[in-house]
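Case study: Alkaline phosphatase 4.
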Amino acid sequence: MTPVSLRLVSALALAIGLCASGGASGAASGGASGASAQTAARPPVEQSQSQGRAKNVILFLADAGGVASVHAASVMAYGEPLRLHIQQWPNLGLSETSPVDAFVSDSANGMSAIVTGVKTHNGVISQGPDGERGRRDGTPTQTVLEYAEQHGLLTGVVTDRPITDATPAATYAHSNDRGKWGEIFPQAFSPRFGDGVDVLIGSGRTEIAEQMAANGVSYDSLARAHDRPIYATLEAAPAANRRPVVVAEEIDVRAATLRALDLLQAGDKGYLLVVEWDAHTDDPREGLQNIADLDRLIAEVQSRVDLDDTLMIFTADHSFGLQVDGGRRGQPLLEGYEAWKARDGDERVVRLENVMVNRTHTAEEVPALAIGVGAERVRGYFPNTHLFEVMMKAFGWTPSSGD
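Here is what the predicted structure looks like once written out:
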């Protein structure tokens, strides 16, 4: 059976399943409320295969957003499974996330593998497995963002996390220790390829400043040395600045992403945009709500791009110990959440009425969904390094070549 036939069969099966559950309630818990066009049952989007090249690639990363968490986010937000926008995308695979020496990944190895095509050790940022965390540098591995810079595209990184945290840092920096924020952030101003990240927006302002100060570096000294202001809020970055760097205390991911998209779409040669939103479910409501909010943002971004020249990917760097083991339609998924929060909620295992969370990373595969140019390459089981190949092939690039 051809890949097209396989996708059509999968789409038909999913559509039948949606119809079978279509009469259920859209009740929500955890902040999402009311009827929405997104809650209506509908078959997945159909997309013909494209042999063209992508001008643009957008990678969305739900940090710790495993299969169970994505499912739970739909049930929490809409009262039903399969209601997220990304769950209607036509191309789906399962991405295996292990580092080279273990089974459970952290964000450093997980994201490094996605953006470089090389698995490494936990704690190591975009260096090969010859590196040793905190003790020895490994071979720097070129990231898809660095390839984009090398080819003259515009690039952007947006995160709700510190801009030096493992996931965003893996796109623009190389370090044998994800904790070396004071060394990681200045690398954005001394790129190995091109002129560096064009739009860089994240949080962590105080902590990054403290670590840089230990190395005799400050935001002001970096900004003067590179003639590039570093703003403390998104609002402070003037619209006339086409290459803003924002390191804030907190980030509105939606506002930052749409700002970045506007700036990157103004270029002629295309762009790479990476957007991260934390989805750890240490706090179940917060983590699942972040997935639901990221999904709404993805739908909004999709409405602003042309899928004939743009590839969009959603995935996670690793999974997390959440399971849905109870619940009924029409009832809140997170029954018992308020009582858990009232007693400080500091247990290693969160036990709610219908949900249990073992607050740790886990080893199972994570979802990878795609739509647009080159999306047909996202299918089946594969190592997370395959997503690097998907993006590179979509752009029409060969690793370590200048063509």
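For the exam, be able to explain this: The first helix runs from residue 3 to 20.
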